Predict the structure of Aspartate racemase.
Amino acid sequence: MVCPDVPSPTSMESPVVVKVKTKKPKEVMLGICGGVGPAAGLLLHQLILQNTDSAGEDQGHLNVCHFSRSEDMTDRTEYLVYAASSAADATDSDSDSGSVNGEAEYGNSDSIKEVENPACGMARTFAMMHAAATAGRARLVVGVPCNTFHSQPIWDEFIRRTGCASYVQHVHMLEETIAFIERMLPSCKRVGLMSTSGTRNSRVYHDLLEPRGYTVVEIHAGSMQQELHESIYNREWGVKSTAPAVSPLSEANFHRYALHLREQGAEAIILGCTEIPFVFAGKTHIAGCLLINPMVALSRAMIREADPSRLKPAESSSILNKEQNLFSVLPRSLPKACPVPLASRQCTGLTSSSAASSGTPRSNRS
């Protein structure tokens, strides 16, 4: 299902943003298109703070506009299953075309419930954000903290609806993640991936990694992948429902998946769902394998595009050690007890410690 176009770019029914000629704005604003899920947007905001050289003062931070409208965001995996099933029916494929790798089965096309492309809801969110930036005469650097949202059927539609807006730059989180790996681990050839079934089936990471000579390593398809997906989406103990807290079952599962990937020769592991970093709070490695949080790459890219002089330097020697640093998948702060039934689990909050002020002047950093 594709949301219909309407003439008005400001309409909440279907915001196709139209470019308007104005004077180039002097101010810059980072735009977080959140709500996919809500906790991931908070983490991205924190990572922006953590990776910004603020010279130790509030005024040294970049302006951030964070819109989180979860009610208007359809589930990304659900939409991809629907889109694949609809495409299969439209081309009269074989009798099992209603099943996408065992995730969903449909008796016939009449039983398929229409699912709106998540790009439509995000475009409506973007329209609000763009209106705010325009009112403040600021240019926007926009990021979406969701891996599955970057699958081609969703991302391309989002760009079609928002890419022509005036003074806006979209940052592609997955492309920045690959560039991050290339810079930090130039000798790496085998990359592990833990992700939702939607991200896995879309092969969005494969399409970016394999042409560059990487081998993508994943956990076994079938029951193990279904269990991983459940460890994210289960409404009682899945990390999406408990974040920033993490249930003992979800934590144990993801550590097991990471060790499984390491045993298959993974040199780095992409945490391919933006809630997974909550499981590995304060860690950079597991079993000697580097953990890659795509939102670290996204946060740094957004800062770079807004003002490279505000970006903290990235040193290979820093990321490759096993101590917490600005590349930790989730910053560590004072532990807080998780609510029942997670009382036995200590979780990490979302408040980063303030950096000490430095007398060293800022310099441009790539």
Remarks:
- The longest helix spans residues 118-135.
- The longest strand covers residues 27-34.
- Confidence is low (pLDDT under 50) at residues 6-13, 96-109, 316-327, 332-366.
